[in-house]
Amino acid sequence: MNYSRRRFLQVGSLGATLSLSDFFRLNAAEGKADSGRSAVLVFLGGGPAHQDTFDMKPDAPEEYRGEFKPIRTSVPGIEICEHMPKLAQRAKQYAVIRGITHTLADHGLGTRYLMTGNLPTPVVNYPMYGSVVSREFPSAPDVPSFVSIDRPVEGPGYLGAEYGPLSTGEKPRYGQPFRVRGITLDGELTIEKYEKRRRLLSDIDGAFGAYEELDESVRSLDRFSEDAYRIISSSRSRNAFDLSREPEREVDRFGRHEFGQSMMLTTRLVEAGVRFVTVLLEGWDTHQDNFNQMGRDLLPSFDQSLSAMLDRFSEKGLLESTSILVTGEFGRTPKVNKNAGRDHWARAMCALMAGGSVSGGQVVGSTDDKAEGPLGDGFSPDDLAATFLKNIGVDPKKEYNANVGRPITLIRNGAPIPSILG
């Protein structure tokens, strides 16, 4: 249940000292069952070429199939790109979804669609998945519920700013002290400095009589300040962000590149109890020089870091409790352009799911012989979202009250994709 003004005053009448921050966390935790689940969204910003990754067309004409060759995986009959040999060996751990289709071949609109599972509209501002999980399954008080590595890709929408992510502000880089929202985690910070800032919030607490009357910007100020404070004052949170604690063998396993460091940080956050992590792996907008960019840099790094994350979660017994979605905002044009690149193409794309109840070692859906569109109806981003949320433990048809005068269904038009979840 939610705390009302009356409940707030009742607590106060008992002589308890309840700050706004304490009140918010108590309200968030009240009546919320612990799902025991976490989730990771690996967002391939820019839109990876589906026919050069997990939906290859080796029998198509040369101007369509491109330069890459398919290789066999550990599952008979499933082939993926030659530049992902590690993922080929681990095909039993994930499911490939082909034939995802939509019409928004624009980075901003496509990203909003794939990050929320709802078609963008000026009427309703839909929340990204991490905000939903943060609301439904708040983490322990000393770790943030939702972390977005680098920057937030989308926002919390109608759920409100208090369910937005704690954004780190930058990506981790090997050999450099990592910073979270400008705070360097290198042992040189002084907690007292931030304690002074935190004490300023007590003035806000004393100025308002009930939580529900607070302006959203005030609530978000408190929440973000509290998150930053908890990171530098809680050893569990601070250690989770401290990549220098990883042995060299783990650094080598994930890779010393930006992809690898970001994915290693993701695993540490989940291990520490963070409920949802969004990690943004960018660079996939290959309008030119597609095959050199992907074959030399993007695919080898992605192959290494995602394989390392799957292995580590499996070794630590966390793969069954961690739902993983890997997707971009759209695919790329079936025909290679004159600059040896591929342009935006939303009519066909693919995604990967792993962990939780996902039945790995399978391909669901298909596209035509040139990867131009799905065979049959295909799947929508709404369907992908419904499957992801169900795997996490959130009912995709749950309704929320929003500021549009009517209840809003979380995923209005989508349904879980058959056979993905066991």
Give me the CATH superfamily of the largest domain.
Alkaline Phosphatase, subunit A
Number of strands: 16
Instruction: Provide the domain count.
Output: 2
- Examine the secondary-structure arrangement and name the CATH architecture of the largest domain: 3-Layer(aba) Sandwich
Strand order of the main beta sheet, please?
A: 6-5-9-1-10-13-4-14
Q: How far is the N terminus from the C terminus?
A: 32 Å
Largest sheet: 8 strands, mixed
Report on this structure.
This protein has 2 domains: 1-31 and 188-237, no CATH class; 39-178 and 242-283 and 297-332 and 345-409, Alkaline Phosphatase, subunit A (3-Layer(aba) Sandwich). A hairpin with a 5-residue loop joins strand 15 (399-401) and strand 16. Helix 7 runs antiparallel to helix 9 (216-233) and helix 11 (248-254) crosses helix 12. It is globular and about 60 Å long. It contains 14 helices and 16 strands. 48% of the residues are buried. The protein has 422 residues and is α/β, with parallel strands linked by helices.
